[in-house]
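Q: Convert this sequence to structure tokens.
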Amino acid sequence: MPTEMELRIVAALLRRGRALDLLSQALMLSALAFGLAQLLMSAIFPFYLALVAVVVLLGLWQLYWALRVGLDAELFERMAADAVHLAERTEALDQALARLQLQPAARAGRPWLERQQGALRLLWYQVGLVCAQVLVLLAGILVFPWL
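A:
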């Protein structure tokens, strides 16, 4: 069983996903503004509209992971608040998640180490998508003078 401190550390790491989400949203809005500005100009570059579409799709995909990471952060924090009764709270959590169809009933009773690794993996997915957004935007900026 994990300690209260382990649960709080995982929750703190998962809360960093909020900053990633804000960065991703800023990148997405910037790309949309650039795309809309192109529509107002006389020359429309399909390459840049495609870049805008990719950045927006990556941003929406990142938003999905951000929602999941945020939920996990809150659940880990709540479990850490009463770590003394972690076994009972884990069972109640698994039952609630199964009733709400957020987790298959077969996944109930997983060890907390596996849950921590899974939650942190979601955070890494989020990091990867934000990095992909940045790379796509940088590629567009670097190619712009050549078009």
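The helical segments are 4-15, 17-40, 46-81, 86-99, 112-143.
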